[in-house]
Amino acid sequence: LEQGCQIVSIEGEGSGTPATGDITMKAGDFGVATTNEMGTQTLSDGTTLTFDKGSNNNAPKYYSTGSGTIRLYPGNTIAINAGSKKVASITIVCDSYQGTDYTAEGKLTSTQGTVSLSGLTYTISNINASTFTLTNGDTGTGGKTQLRALSITITYAK
């Protein structure tokens, strides 16, 4: 497995192909050293997540503080390429620390699907695409403009 990735859970029909389940990656599962840029991460099923600085001067980074988070600064992007598989939805659980919810103030966008935020959990549903990009659309300043992801779950179309 590249980059120290591991499948945390697989749910689904058990048809023998990883494309029929969910893959959940906790921030620390990617094996990136603390304060380092996330770069491109390849999951065990071949799906790639490319973390990019986008319109920001700083690229997304991993921090081991607490249970570990991936910090997406305003303008940062995650390009997802699932190859021949189609993604049905993605769930991102965000961090809250000392009274600040790090959800980019609800301004996450996606080039495919519908984005919703409930508490600290983003759900991007109705994606039905193998390639798409998530963007921290916040343009403000301060910690609350960051999206700090504790985990990312990808659910593939059945």
Query: How many extended strands?
Result: 14
Distance between the termini: 24 Å
Report the order of strands and helices.
Answer: EEEEEEEEEEEEEE
Fraction in beta strands: 35-45%
The residue fraction in helices comes out at: under 10%
What Rg, in angstroms, do the CA atoms define? 15 Å
The shape is globular
Class by SSE composition = mainly beta
How confident overall, as mean pLDDT? 90
Textual characterization of the structure:
This protein has strands spanning 22-26, 40-42, 48-52, 61-63, 69-72, 77-81, 87-94, 96-97, 100-101, 108-110, 114-118, 121-125, 131-136, 147-156. A hairpin with a 2-residue loop joins β8 (96-97) and β9. With 158 residues, the protein is mostly beta strands. It is 0% helix and 42% strand.
What are the defining features of this structure?
mainly beta, 5-stranded antiparallel sheet, 0% helix, disordered N terminus
Structure in a nutshell:
This protein has 158 residues and is mainly β. The protein has no helices and 14 strands. The radius of gyration is 15 Å and the shape is globular.
Q: How is the secondary structure organized here?
A:
Blueprint: E1 22-26, E2 40-42, E3 48-52, E4 61-63, E5 69-72, E6 77-81, E7 87-94, E8 96-97, E9 100-101, E10 108-110, E11 114-118, E12 121-125, E13 131-136, E14 147-156
Antiparallel strand pairs: 1-14, 2-3, 3-6, 4-5, 5-14, 6-13, 7-12, 7-14, 8-9, 10-13, 11-12
